[in-house]
Design a protein that fits this description.
61% of the residues lie in helices and 0% in strands. It is built from seven helices and no strands. It starts with 8 loop residues before the first helix and ends in a 5-residue tail after the last helix.
């Protein structure tokens, strides 16, 4: 029987914190949350380091802990109540399929410059994205902010392409409504 040397946690932090952060940020698209997840990963590793059996590399072990923390993060977001009606779009459209006058998207001024360069818009966008169901928000972020291909997103989320496009359609409607209500109408 071989004796497994317990890894030095400070060495693990130095070696893998950057890689863990990149993975966490890729998954949650929020710098502060990614840092928190990495910190939680190292806290869990510190608590369980004596049980590390050496059956995998320390890097694999840490990434496994991080992946579990990310899953827990998204589970908590999914449980969070949200105010959108995800089943019906009668609040957006008439029975004939036309926009309801009060829900018709407003015209956004093309001369306002690039919206993502506007700090106020970014705060409102983040608020509106956070208000969406977790899978909807993640779909929008992966498609438009991280510019991933639809097929790759479907694989990552475990949804069919039909389901993905339905999610995107609903998410864009809700996102536009939220932005119109919370940002655009103030201008």
């Amino acid at each position: 029987m071989t004796v497994v040397e317990t890894p030095d946690l400070s060495v693990l932090v130095e070696q893998y914190a950057g890689d863990l952060y990149k993975r966490a940020f890729f998954k949650v698209s929020d710098s502060e949350m990614a840092k928190d997840l990495v910190q939680d990963t190292f806290m869990a590793a510190a608590e369980k380091i004596s049980t590390f059996k050496g059956e995998s590399t320390p890097k694999t072990w840490l990434f496994s802990i991080l992946n579990n923390k990310i899953i827990d993060y998204y589970r908590a977001k999914v449980v969070r109540p949200y105010h959108y009606n995800t089943q019906s779009f009668s609040n957006f459209f008439t029975e004939e399929g036309d926009w309801r006058p009060e829900k018709k998207p407003g015209n956004w001024n093309e001369d306002e410059g690039h919206l993502l360069d506007d700090a106020e818009f970014n705060v409102t966008l983040k608020m509106c994205l956070d208000a969406l169901p977790a899978k909807w928000s993640l779909s929008i972020k992966l498609k438009y902010l991280m510019e991933k291909e639809s097929e790759e997103i479907c694989q990552e989320l475990g949804v069919s392409t039909t389901n993905f496009w339905q999610i995107m359609h609903r998410a864009k409607l809700q996102l536009r409504d939220c932005l119109d209500s919370n940002w655009h109408r103030k201008i």
